[in-house]
Amino acid sequence: xxxxxxxxxxxxxxxxxxxxxxxxxxxxxxxxxxxxxxxxxxxxxxxxxxxxxxxxxxxxxxxxxxxxxxxxxxxxxxxxxxxxxxxxxxxxxxxxxxxxxxxxxxxxxxxxxxxxxxxxxxxxxxxxxxxxxxxxxxxxxxxxxxxxxxxxxxxxxxxxxxxxxxxxxxxxxxxxxxxxxxxxxxxxxxxxxxxxxxxxxxxxxxxxxxxxxxxxxxxxxxxxxxxxxxxxxxxxxxxxxxxxxxxxx
Length: 249
Fold this sequence. Notes:
Blueprint: E1 3-10, H1 22-25, E2 31-35, H2 43-56, E3 59-63, H3 81-97, E4 106-107, H4 111-117, H5 121-134, E5 140-143, H6 147-155, E6 159-164, H7 188-201, E7 203-205, E8 211-213, E9 218-222, H8 228-241, E10 245-246
Parallel strand pairs: 1-2, 1-9, 1-10, 2-3, 3-4, 5-6, 6-9
Antiparallel strand pairs: 7-8
């Protein structure tokens, strides 16, 4: 039987502002990536989201990003590699402290940091080293076939290759920038169909129609997608019908 980890970016509320359907989505996914207070989230939200994920028995991952609350971490920042490494260590360490056993399941960079590191090897290495300082056995979730995966392999950090059901791809395997049309897919049925093909064929059809090979260990659905709850429900149903088991890595 084919198996796939189903993850979602959660814990992105802040102060009095609530974002997403975390309580419902947590019960439908197998792992979560929790914001660490830099692009979204705050200590209270981090603690609450960790408790919910622990109660659900799913994998808890840190979701570190640029210190950019106003831009939701989706604007690249000019930082030295040392600054990036320390920024990652700081955020991963902070979320780890909220867990009962002081142990995380994985780390997945957020937004502009994730996308930049997918193509910038030195930046990817800085992220991996920041994770390694906290726990050298802590897996990194990175865009399939990207520099994040190459960097993790290079320094011996465990990793999982991630794909996106609700994002369109360029022919080179990167995600279509959110500033471009059709970057995000909202139709739950279309997303479920794409994910099934990703899992079974290990390919995705890029926005230009080209078929792109990729390794699929984990599938992400963004928690801030307006249709996130409907997407995850449809995806779980489609996976079950196809005989694909959703399971934490």
